[in-house]
Amino acid sequence: MIRIAKGNESKSLLTTLIRISLLAGACILSACSSGDADKPAAQATASGAVLNGVLSYAPEDYYQQSEGKPGGTLRATVALDTSTFDVHAISHGNVQWLGRILYDGLVYQDEQGNISPWLAKSWEISPDGKTYTFHLRDDVTFSDGVRFNAEAVQVNLEHMRDPATKSPLAAAYIRPYLRGRIVDEYTFEATLSEPYSPFLDVLAQSWLSMISPKQIKENPKSIAEHPIGSGPFVLESYVRAQGANFTKRADYNWAPPVTRHKGPAYLDRIELSFVPEAMIRYSSLQSGQSDFTLDAPAQNAKAIRADPALRFHSRVRKGNPFRSLTLNVEKAPFNDVQVRKALALAIDREGVAWITGFGEYAPKSDFLAANSRYYDPSFKDALTYNVAEANRLFDQAGWTGRDEKGYRVKDGKRLSATLLITENPAFPNSVAVAIQADARKVGFELNIELVPTAVATDRRYGGDYQALGGGYWHTNTPDGLYILYHSNSIASEKLIGQNSSRLRDPELDDVLERARKSNDPVELKALYSQAQRRLTEVVPAIPSYESIHMIAYRNKVKGVFFDTSHNTPLFIGVWLDKEAQ
Q1: How far apart are CA 180 and CA 188, in angstroms?
Q2: In sequence order, what E strands does 423-540 have?
Q3: Omega before residue 333 within 30° of 0, cis
Q4: Eight-class DSSP state of 252
Q5: DSSP label of 141
Q6: What mean pLDDT comes out for the span 137-164?
Q7: Phi, psi of 411 (to 5 degrees)
Q8: How far is CA 126 from CA 133, 190, 336, 425, in A?
Q9: Over 50: is that where the pLDDT of 44 sits?
Q10: Quick one: pLDDT band at residue 17, thresholds 50, 70, 90?
Q11: Are 512 and 486 in contact (CB under 8 A)?
């Protein structure tokens, strides 16, 4: 049973009818295609390799391997609109690739995850780890003609942490940033309040891209729909919930050296359409109405692989895996670690992964993605599906009685909690119902409350819930564990924090704090191993599967390679082969 709390949002009858007709057309189009099973094996490329439990991808996946041909328009689809182009103000997953279309970053990770130049040519770090001096390129301009310089860096960092920006991500990532100093026009000095070894890593992420300082100072609200960056494309037009068009910037010539791309992008235009319906994204790609989808539907992955006219990539995001549940440890019954662990053991992750991923998602029961730096696979089985052990832990926690409906009871009270969810394609209601059924098998009553996103957001930051459904936190550094589980990351009036479990564990806090202050790879490996072990012991959340990004495109699309921080496509090297089918 799902209890629905209604908001004030509504869709017009016309919109609903249009969606129904489009879906009907898509189903007809899909049905007209036959023989998928008899087609050659998929042209699925750039698969990762697992060695000793650690996932990696080939270095050549991350740079341009040959020159492309200029010209043409790429027609692309994606499921959702970010609703703003101010990348500092959101944590939306689309920013991973969308930000790279419009903006540039200060630094860039290389194929091994080390920091390499971009808009900053070089940098020095003081012996105490608190002062970073950046030497900037002097040939970069924003699309409004303003030069990129030290002032631009300072203005952007201030915008990220300005309370008016309401940043849920960038502000947290630069929280140790104390102040900036313009040494000269192309030298910027950043002073931190304490050593913070992930500082350069987070500056390499798309959410911390550079926006025109003139726009930030004069009209920051305009960034939402009329962004000005220094990136390879410029926004030409945008219609909320429908689409956005981008045009090539002809004078662009400062791509990250790691990408091996010289000069402007090859494409003249990118026409991006927002298409929530998975079947329509697939059918439009299959029929040639679109060239590229940034959200390849998992349910169609097998058909895409089997189609010789299409190519498919499935890639794991670094950072934290997808969570089926985040447990509020301040609220009963999840203030008892035995109950948290028992419930984690009771959930069939393979079943959950299949419901959402149709066999495409890798089940996951530990707390760091397998391709993250310092991932330790030693704990990958600590919370795997084990009903017998779940029942033993519930008994040990004192929930030994049963009521007339078979639910566990203690001191006359039923073992029960409410799961708060929203309408979310990444966490459909069917997943919540499946988890509810798994919990029921071990005598745990898990009620489901469906609320509008705005309501869920308010309640999440206010701590008004027992459990939250769905969510992942991608980042290019294992410090994502700090963002999600350190006590300093709990939301407050002054911080849009991401520690939704509201965990306060001194042992974990100490390990994560020491990791932030260390630059020694040996020490960092040991510290992050301890953090991963500790999370499987305190169980603030229930991981379900790796966070996967799947794309597909037609054969005429060439030159696709991937961003080193986000494992999402970069469009600067993409070109269209008019002779390909």
Answers
A1: 7
A2: 445-450, 467-469, 473-474
A3: yes
A4: -
A5: B
A6: 98
A7: 55, 35
A8: 8, 11, 44, 46
A9: no
A10: very low
A11: yes
Q: Is the pLDDT of residue 312 over 90?
A: yes
Q: Are 147 and 155 in contact (CB under 8 A)?
A: no
Tens of pLDDT along 242-299?
999 999 999 999 999 999 999 999 999 999 999 999 999 999 999 999 999 999 999 9
d(CA 219, CA 466): 40
**Three-state DSSP state, 344:** helix
Report the distance separating Cα 71 and Cα 500, nearest Å: 46
What type of residue sits at position 277? E
| First-last CA distance in the chain | 48
pLDDT, tens digit, 9 for 90 and up, residues 325-354? 999 999 999 999 999 999 999 999 999 999
Fill in the amino acid letter for 42: A
Q: What is the mean pLDDT of residues 311-316?
A: 97
β-strand 416-421 against 467-469: which pairing, if any? parallel
- In 289-336, which ranges are continuous DSSP H helix? 301-306
Collapsing DSSP states into helix, strand and coil, what is residue 361? coil
Q: Rounded to whole angstroms, how far apart are CA atoms 446 and 154? A: 48
Query: In a 3-state reduction of DSSP, which class is residue 478?
Result: coil
Query: SS3 for 388?
Result: helix
Closest Cα partner for 497 from 468, 457, 466?
Answer: 457
- Enter the CATH code of domain 319-545: 3.10.105.10
Give, for 402, the enclosing helix (H) or strand (E): strand 401-402
DSSP string, 483-499: HHHSGGGS--SS-----
Report helix, strand or coil for 545.
strand
- The predicted model scores a pTM of 0.90
Band (pLDDT 50/70/90 cuts) for residue 581 is low
Quote the pLDDT of residue 5: 57
Q: Report pLDDT digits (tens) over 206-240.
A: 999 999 999 999 999 999 999 999 999 999 999 99
**Number of neighbours of residue 261 by Cβ within 10 angstroms:** 23
Write down the architecture of domain 87-224 according to CATH: Alpha-Beta Complex (3.90)
Alpha-carbon torsion angle 105, 107, 113, 116, nearest 10: 140
CA of residue 505 relative to chain centroid, distance: 25
Q: Where are the domains of the chain?
A: 87-224, 319-545
- Cα(318)–Cα(562) distance, rounded to whole angstroms? 13
Classify residue 251 as exposed, middle or buried by CB count within 10 Å of its CB (0-12, 13-18, 19+). exposed
**Spatial distance between the Cα atoms of 280 and 297, rounded to a whole number of angstroms:** 10
The radius of gyration computed from the CA coordinates of the chain, to the nearest angstrom, equals 24
Residue 52 φ/ψ region, left for φ over 0, alpha for ψ in the -120 to 50 degree band, beta for the rest: left
Could you tell me which of 299, 363, 421 has the C-alpha nearest to residue 547?
A: 363
Q: Residue 216: which of 135, 153, 169 has the closest Cα?
A: 153
H or E element in which residue 316 lies: strand 310-316
Query: In sequence order, what DSSP letters do the residues of 175-230 get, joined into one string?
Result: TTEEEEEEEETTEEEEEESS--TTHHHHHTSGGG-BB-HHHHHH-GGGGGTS--BS
